[in-house]
Amino acid sequence: MEESPTNDPAKAGKTHQQGAQDNTPKSGERPDQGAAPTNDHYRPDPQMERDQRHIPAPDVAGAKYQFPVLAQPPEELTGLKLEPRMKIAAGVTAVIKSMEFSWTEGGVNRGTRGLLKMNQKDGFDCSSCAWPDPDDHRSFAEFCENGAKATASDADDRSAGPEFFAKHSLADLSRMTDRDQNNSGRLTHPMVKRPGGTHYEPIEWPEAFDLIGKELNALASPDEAAFYTSGKVPNEPAFLFQLFAKQFGTNNLPDCSNMCHESSGAALSPTLGLGKGSVTLNDLYDADVILIIGQNPGTNHPRMLSALQKAKQNGAKVISINPLIEAGLNHFKNPQDFMNPLKALGVLLGDGTTITDLFLQVRVDGDMALLRGIMKHLFEAEDRNPGKVVDHEFIKEFTTGFDSFEQNIRSTSWEDIEQISGISREDLLEAANMLATKQKIITCWAMGVTQQRQGVQTIQEIVNLHLMKGAIGKPGAGTCPVRGHSNVQGDRTMGVWEQPTKLFQDALGKEFNFTPPYEHGRDVVETIKSMYRGETKVYFSLGGNLLAAGPDTEVIAEGMRKQNLTVFVGTKLNRGHLVTGNTSLLLPCFTHLDIDMQKSGHQMTSCENSMGVVSQNKGALVPLPGQMLSEVAILAGVAIATLGPDRTNVADWVAMTENYDVIRDHISRVIPGFEKFNENLRKPGGFYLPNGPRERKFTTHNGMANFTTTELEKYTLEPGQLVLMTVRSHDQFNTTIYEYNDRYRGIHNERRVLFMNKQDIAERGLKAKDLIDITSHYEGEERTVEKFIVVPYEIPRGNVSAYFPEANPLVPIASVAKTSNTPTSKYVVVTVAPAKVGAAPQAQKQRAEAVPA
């Protein structure tokens, strides 16, 4: 066997070529998962103490007059052009848009080279979504339109250096759109905003590290600091980030998972023993029925459409459940087919592959009732055909809690099911008939489920459906939470979590010879509350944009302003960098695409995709001129300056920076499943992590898969009220805005729009393109955003939809999902009214003018 690269510095960071044998799992085979199945140290504490102190609703509409630096995107409209909703996703247009973005931002050479190395076995991991790459053959163009946009943004050859920040104050920059901020170019130099300053100005790295160390060490308690991460951060820096926070003395590690798939982990861990999905990409190809719930793959995970196309060709049926009819759920033209002369003409002229066989246009927050309706039909079918519908053998051998669950489903009334879901009993019967005799069933879901009030309980009903059918732990069957950002799952695996287990902390403390904190820290919502009250005094962000991603934007902004120090590690400017503490640092780092050269050579990192595959990430482009550092080097500099030789092993931080194999050797001894990490990472395509549910080994508290008896809650609205859900546009990934277009929904050159049912529009005396204000209502308080445009759309009556971050100020900080504490961005009660377009109150005008820009 080849010598470990850690023992041979000449080999550090290099990709080792493997033999010609093909060990990748074929369709229908289970992958080699290494060690015995384990859980992922995810033990959500539903009794965790939450801060219940009231935070009053901020003056959302008036904030623009009170603060010179805008926390919300500017209200100026950019020129809406409406076209009919598209019915086909991808195709020629997607290819053209991909090239257009790549060549415009990165130039032809950089842009093309970046695309051709993306998601290859010896290349870099796409910094967009976490959809898995094929185990075996990969196309020379293994990317989608959204991946091309993300890569183009990372490859940007424009720079936002000291000259840029000297020209523009923070107030000026905040009046740019989020798109224009992103398009300002790559951050190239460390910058600081001094107390009382209005601009970022240059600072040398040693001073920046020293400043962070002094501020952190001046705190009365380590718990007065918060360490936030984005899912874009690879495994190695994520591991170091949580290590540093814990050596400093806190588990305050809020991360973007708290706002997305926290509900999935909270539902899956106690029921199946693993807070992740149980399927592989090959399973999708083998499935008989695929349910897609609360997800828009055409925009958010476009490469998933290729997998669905292959599943359809193999005979699978697809049931799509969503309040909006999305192009990607309708038809798909695979851009790869244009490379095949036998398919090109047909794809060019035809409608592509039909994706959905049955579309159920559920009401917002109605998925739980819908699932109950399907299962109620299945129980009725079982009564007529004993032993043919419900898998009693699986239930007896592997599960507990079935009797209580069955009684709960049977006792749910059809009246409640139809009223809450908005779907008729007959349509639900059609769905049940597609499932009745099948066991190779996969359910995929995303934010449309997790950000509901009962997101956790809805996912538990998904698990219940799979357990009653025995549709888990076999080829072509299982659960598939579709993660968003590229390494959001990996960051949690690496220990970025505010609720670490004793097992994980013990292993970490033993490996690094310290006593880590065991008390639970604060998640995103609790961190925002703590910052708002001034109880957190230092906010450190490794990537991401909490201001634009989180709920109650003006509450977050007020919390940021109360910090002694805010630290933002990032690649490009965003709005979150502008609303700062008394002192603020803006520290530039490499992207996945950049070549990371350290003392031992060209380094690689790793990412974990949605299906538990860990693969290498190795940059392909020379970084722009400047003083950018890798995330690893930045964290090592901060750790050494803060902890010093008395609280950490300085030599080890230096060694980990010079050679990332050293980090991976540490990880291999701390985290189950990462044994022989360096060796396995160098295998083409990477390696699978252990997955108990995939093998019908459920590492729950009782060693069984657990049915859940949930409560179906009914909510009533006041006259005139609607339910809002926030969504992305097509030219957007998470909070990064690439353009003002959403072509699949027919929106061009505008983002401040509200999608409404035509009857709801008429009832309010409105018409298409009217200018409106939107007010949210929660526990007697109101928040208002101004200047949105009415857009008629096919959406259930009583429901409306708008883009985030523009609509995030409407989401109350106190409105969270049960158990997971995830903000309820998919259930916001609102009213709409004609816009009050007028001058600002005189007092507010004077206050704004008195603050220097």
UniProtKB/TrEMBL annotation:
- Show the ranges annotated as biased composition (Polar residues): 15-26
NCBIfam families, from UniProt?
Fdhalpha-like
Boundaries of every Molybdopterin oxidoreductase domain copy: 186-567
Q: GO terms for molecular function, please?
A: 4 iron, 4 sulfur cluster binding; formate dehydrogenase (NAD+) activity; molybdenum ion binding; molybdopterin cofactor binding
One biological-process term from Gene Ontology?
A: cellular respiration
Chain ranges of the Molybdopterin dinucleotide-binding domain: 722-828
Q: Which UniProt keywords apply?
A: 4Fe-4S, Iron, Iron-sulfur, Metal-binding, Molybdenum, Oxidoreductase
Region annotation Disordered: where it falls in the sequence = 1-52, 177-198
**What are its cofactors?**
[4Fe-4S] cluster; Mo-bis(molybdopterin guanine dinucleotide)
Return the protein name: FdhF/YdeP family oxidoreductase
